[in-house]
Design brief:
There is one protein chain. The protein is of the alpha+beta class. The chain is built from 11 helices and 12 strands. Helices cover 34% and strands 15% of the residues. Strands 3-4-6-5 form a 4-stranded antiparallel sheet, with helices on one face. Strands 7-10-12-11 form a 4-stranded antiparallel sheet. A two-stranded antiparallel ribbon has the order 1-2. The longest helix is centred in the C-terminal third of the chain and has 21 residues. It starts with 7 loop residues before the first strand and ends in a 19-residue tail after the last strand.
Length: 376
Amino acid sequence: MVTNRRNFILGAGGSLALVSAAGFWHVTRMPKKAIEPWQLDPDPPADARMDAFRHAILAPNPHNRQPWLIQLEGNDSAIISCDLDKRLPETDPFDRQIVIGFGTFLELARIAAAEREIRMDMTLFPEGEPQPRLDTRPVARLTFVADKTVRRDPLYKAILARRTNREIYSQSAPTARQLAALQAGDVNTTSDPALLGRLRAITVAAISDEMNTRRTMMETVRLLRIGRDEVDAAGDGLALTGPMIEATRSLGLTSRETLADPTSAAFKIGLDGQRKIYDSVPAAFWISTPGNTRAEQLEAGRRYVRATLRAAALGLAIHPMSQSLQEYPEMANHLAEVHTLLGASLDHRIQMLARIGHAPSVTPAPRLPLQSHIVA
């Protein structure tokens, strides 16, 4: 997300708000290079694989790490693997969320290929499922086959409109018809006030614990991109941009050091801001799987990105609340609580939990160019 509000808030697992500095609204420096991948050339590449992948790199993924490596083979195949330096060992110690991010990538690639009457055949983990963490083995082998019987997916039109929206949501819940449309994608939804009240208590406690745990907080702080120049230079990570960010950064008020200091005003305001965000849950949805295999994690990612595309088509905002599902020790109680609340045992794994509703629009998140993911 590119944030440009008065109270600057960074989400996705350990987040901070910054004190606004009135009087600096004349500064208007926003990223340009980092959002160019969202501006697709209307003339698609001749190679259908590259067309599919230029859409796939727009997929939501944890901490915006974009860990996808693509090795092209021959004229119709590709090997997809993980950039191991892009994993999140503190907040995602078993790479479950990273694998979910590969599921979102693969599903967008499949949808884009189908738009050109190309079938994308997938062999998942062709050399075996890596456990307990990902390694150099492929996540998937893809083969692109011309097939006029392939049906175009109506969700294709929503790919460029999809956003992760970390703003405070209005109290107005999605309609029953909108929630039913989301459920069509094999997700569970609720707008029940009693259930949401208990869910808010868990998610607010989880984000608080993540921010107050030094090593998990620092994992986020290290991925901050503060100001337009850093965002454009990096193309990944968690973006803090906008007039007030540029102004406070130039004054030395916004830095990784101040954001990491739990005694600072910025940290305290940020913690309060995140509690308010995670308390604004007019409706929620979650995705569960019978087990927790790598293939099931990929499937959860596929279902999640389709839900986000449906939300975009419906004009709804969406934001994952993943902290309580994470596997590091400080989250153990929250992990158990959310499974109990939503009626799932720990064997029947809840893979994704998100809030959904209405919120101010946001700009797209930074993206690395497609070529940076291509490896020899």
